[in-house]
Write a structure and sequence with these properties.
six-stranded mixed sheet; about 140 residues; alpha+beta
């Protein structure tokens, strides 16, 4: 994993707040508010979780309206943020309990860009951890 010591405390807190807001908006199904988390031209890759790759904020909203999440709660933890040129990259662990009592586990890999409204997710890849042999 890349390392960078030039991420400011303010940037780290902003990214942490942003990724926490993601879980709250998804659990409340507030699709119209996703612009608070995602860039207009975002690319969100849910393929590893059995969903589609979605390009653009409007497409993401439509995808979620038509295929709402089936998990009880979206949680992200173990956030690590580093700088790559003028972008920030973030990796966090995802935990998502399901109605049957099982839990999904994996990672979110994000690329964030700074906008006039603050940091936004420009790219997100969701990767599920299915085995202790998965080392990502």
């Amino acid at each position: 994993m890349e390392h960078s010591s030039d991420v400011t405390v303010a940037e780290y807190v902003a990214v942490s707040q942003l990724l926490s807001l993601y879980g709250h908006l998804f659990d409340a199904k507030k699709w119209n508010e996703l612009d608070q988390v995602f860039h207009t031209d975002c690319i969100v890759d849910y393929r590893d979780s059995g969903r589609d790759q979605v390009v653009g904020l409007d497409s993401l909203r439509e995808h979620m309206r038509n295929n709402p999440p089936t998990v009880i709660s979206h949680m992200a933890t173990n956030l690590y943020v580093w700088r790559k040129d003028d972008l920030l990259k973030a990796r966090s662990k995802l935990i998502a309990p399901l109605p049957d009592g099982t839990t999904l586990s994996g990672i979110y890999e994000d690329v964030l860009c700074e906008t006039r409204s603050g940091w936004r997710v420009a790219e997100r890849v969701v990767r599920l951890r299915r085995s202790v042999e998965d080392t990502f």
